[in-house]
Structure formats: C-alpha cells, structure tokens
Amino acid sequence: MNQRQRGVVLTDLGWERLESAIAAAQETEKYGKRFTQAELEERAGISRKTIKKIRQRTAPVDETSVHALFTAFRLELETADYGLPNSIAIEQQETGNGDRESQHHLQAEQATSLHPVETNGGSDRHETLASQSTRPRGVPFQVPPLPYYFVERPEHQNAVKQILLDTPKHPGTLVVSAICGLGGIGKSVLAVKIAHDPEVLSRFCDGVLWATLGQQPDILAFLSSWIQALGDHSYKPITPTAASAHLRTLLADKHMLLVVDDVWHPEHADLFRVGSSDCCVLITTREARIPQAEGYSLDVMSPDQALELITNMLSTPLSEAEQAQARKFAKRVGYLPLALELTASQIADGVIWTELLEDFQAEVAHLETLDLYSADDIIEDAQRRKYSLTACFRLSLKQLSPEQLQQFAWLGVVPEDVTLTQEMA
Ligand SMILES: Nc1ncnc2c1ncn2[C@@H]1O[C@H](COP(=O)(O)OP(=O)(O)OP(=O)(O)O)[C@@H](O)[C@H]1O
Ligand SMILES: [Mg+2]
C-alpha cells in the first residue's frame, strides 16, 4: 500500500535513542531549555521540515538526513534504528505498539498530529502512558499520538465521550457520532484525545481502528488495512463493498472504536459503518451534516486554552507583558487552534510579539485590499477568520510542513500567488 513512499522511518528504538540524545544535549548545553528549530537546523545541516519529519515519524525521510541528525548528536546510526515504512507499520501491528507511531500517517500519508517528542510535564504524556498500560498486547491501536503541546478541553472531551459511552438510544444499533466544525478547530486532536482515554479504552477493549480519509480516499485500502489489523491476512477484498461486508463479520463479536477522520463527503463514511452495537464509529468532518449520526459541533478554544496552547509550545515561560500580547493575538486570530499553533511557532523561532502583530496586521490589511473573499455568501465573521488564517499562513509559509501546506490548501486560504510546489514541501 505504501509503495509510493520512499525513504525510511525511525523505529521505536531509533526514536528513543535520538530523543534521549537530544534531551541530554539540551540538559548539558542549554540547561534544560529546548533547542530552537533554527539551532537544530544549523547543527544537523538539514532543513527544519526534514528534522520535524524524522522526529514526528509522520513521513519517510532519506537515510542520509537521518544519519546527519544522529551524527549531530554523536550517535552512530544503526540498522535497528530505522526501517521501511511498510515494515514498521507491520511490526507495530504485530507488537501492538501502534500508539507510538501513527500507522494511519504511514498508510494515508496524511499527518495530522505530532509525536510527543518534547514533553513539558503536561498531562498528555501521562495520559498516553496511562492508556498504554491499560491496553493488552496485540490489541489494534491505530491512534496517532497527541501533540506535545496538547491542551485539555474537558467540556468537549466529556461531551463526546458521553455520546460514545452512553447506552445506545436504539438498542442493537451501531452508534455513529460525528465531531463537526471548521478546518483547524481541533476535531482530529479531540478524536485522538478521546481514543486515548482510559474509560473509552476499557469500554472498547478490543481496540481502536483509525482511518484519515481526506478528499479522495482510497476506501478499499483503508478497509483492507482494518481487516489486516484484525488479524486476517489471507482475505484480499477487491471491492470496498466486499471489504466492508467482511469487516462486519470480523467485528460481529468485538467491542471496538472505529475512527473515521477527515470525512469530506458523508457517503465516504458509509462503508465504515461496520460493527455490532458493541462498537462505535467516531467521525470527524467539516461537513455540518452526516446522516444518521449524532453530531457534536466543536467550537474555538477559550481565551485561557488559547494562551495555554501558545505557552506549551514555547520553551520559556511568558512574562506578564508577553502574556498580554499573546492574549491579544489569540483574540485576533479568533482562538482557532491551527492559527494559534502557527503563531506560537513563529515566536518559538525568535520573532517578537510586537513584530508579529505588526506583520500580521499589515498582512490582513493587504489581503483586505485584494478583497480575496468578497463572495456574497461569506458572512463577515467567516471572512475575518479567513483573512486571519491566510495572514498566519503567509507569515509561516517558510516553516510549514507538507501536511500543513495541504491543510491550508484544503482550507482554501492559500492565496493565488502561492503555488504548492514540492520544493516548498
Ligand atoms: N487541544 C489542542 N491542544 C493543542 N493543540 C491543538 C489542540 N487542538 C488542535 N490543536 C492544534 O491545532 C491544529 C489543528 O487541529 P486539528 O488538526 O485537530 O484540526 P481539524 O479540526 O481536524 O482540522 P481539519 O478540518 O483541517 O482536519 C493541530 O495541528 C493542533 O496542533
Ligand atoms: Mg482533522
């Protein structure tokens, strides 16, 4: 399935060796402070995007770059440190170790989230470890990791969890729940958080399957990967309908959570509605309506959560004045997590708040003169949000990962004079 991908991905062992070496260097050279992206770039002599890919293990990277990063931290790259994406995905399925490596990233080449490479003592790390310890070996767990800067959103987490854990309103039927909302609002991250929740894991004790569909999903490939994850390596379906029917049989006596992430067209999710009433399907979508699903509409972050996201992404605490600026900026970008993440990565890269605010305002003013989104059907609020996001996008252009570029393209905020070329990625 991954024949198109070239390059290698770190194994658990390689990832742990690299992260320990980076942590040790930070301890001795920076008194525990994190290396900035620019410092890492300079040290390893490879781009920050490549470094990010290696550490997040979201996509294959050429072996020479992996070697350069290891060498920069005085590590000898050994064959056990890396492998081909296919073999690593299979190895994880067999060892039940898929939580450390998001298999769906490898399968669908569509990274959404970050590996918790640099924990800040936040609860996400503990939560992930807690969910690991409650999972028996060999149970499929295809859930991506939470970003290291994860911010709890208890009001939403509890509400969606309740939908999944409640007894079905119509006994004997499969519960389908859909998290809906704007692009970049945090739907996928919320689904990841829920899928790591110990109560959810004990209810769905046979595991969690995950598929990130996107605009043009290869539905047969996703369904086939689920069949394999359930241990059936001999059945080779040739149509999505056959695969779906076979999954129904395999799941008949199972208690599993099936996550169908990033659904663009409601009908794409139909063939994933498999499983008995002891299973649940959790969909994330920008679409407001998914038929026969209990919808949950996700809103933007609260001002405090927005500040926490920015703070978590930075290695040093914010002064009171900086906090005030961060709050102002968060308000300006409409408390949208994706825009907040981009803002914080600019600051982490050394841009100062006043400069960022000025650049941002200039960008928005420029966009307004271009009148990019003047279509009659765009209401003022949505238009303002689009300008904010486009401005964030433009200010962060150089440091965006291919996945983020794609996400922005899908959000429709990539201005016409920006082309999504491979060089940018
Ligand atoms: N609770 C959170 N804590 C920290 N960061 C978050 C949180 N929620 C979202 N983010 C950040 O915001 C970005 C967008 O979130 P996410 O990918 O979940 O959005 P989405 O609603 O699924 O978007 P899309 O419709 O494009 O799939 C992520 O890259 C993530 O880093
Ligand atoms: Mg998403």
CATH architecture of the largest domain: 3-Layer(aba) Sandwich
As a percent range, the share of helical residues equals 40-55%
Structural class: alpha/beta
* Strands, total number: 7
Number of helices: 19
Bound molecules: adenosine-5'-triphosphate, magnesium ion
Tertiary shape: globular
Any overview of this molecule?
The longest helix is centred in the N-terminal third of the chain and has 19 residues, at 12-30. Helix 14 runs parallel beside helix 16 and helix 17 (353-370) crosses helix 18 (380-396). This protein has 19 helices and 7 strands. The chain has helices at residues 12-30, 37-44, 48-56, 63-72, 85-95, 103-108, 123-133, 154-165, 187-196, 198-203, 219-229, 240-250, 266-270, 303-313, 320-332, 337-348, 353-370, 380-396, 402-411; strands spanning 9-10, 82-83, 175-180, 208-214, 257-263, 280-285, 294-297. The strands form 2 sheets. The protein has a 5-stranded parallel β-sheet with strand order 4-5-6-3-7, sandwiched between helices. The protein has a two-stranded antiparallel sheet with strand order 1-2. It has 425 residues and is of the alpha/beta class. It has 3 domains: 9-83, 434 Repressor (Amino-terminal Domain) (Orthogonal Bundle); 123-297, P-loop containing nucleotide triphosphate hydrolases (Rossmann fold, 3-Layer(aba) Sandwich); 303-411, no CATH class. Helix content is 49%, strand content 8%. The structure holds adenosine-5'-triphosphate and magnesium ion. Residues 112, 147, 149-151, 153, 181, 183-189, 262, 284, 286, 309, 337-338, 341, 407 line the site of adenosine-5'-triphosphate. Magnesium ion (MG) is lined by residues 112, 187-188, 261-262, 284.
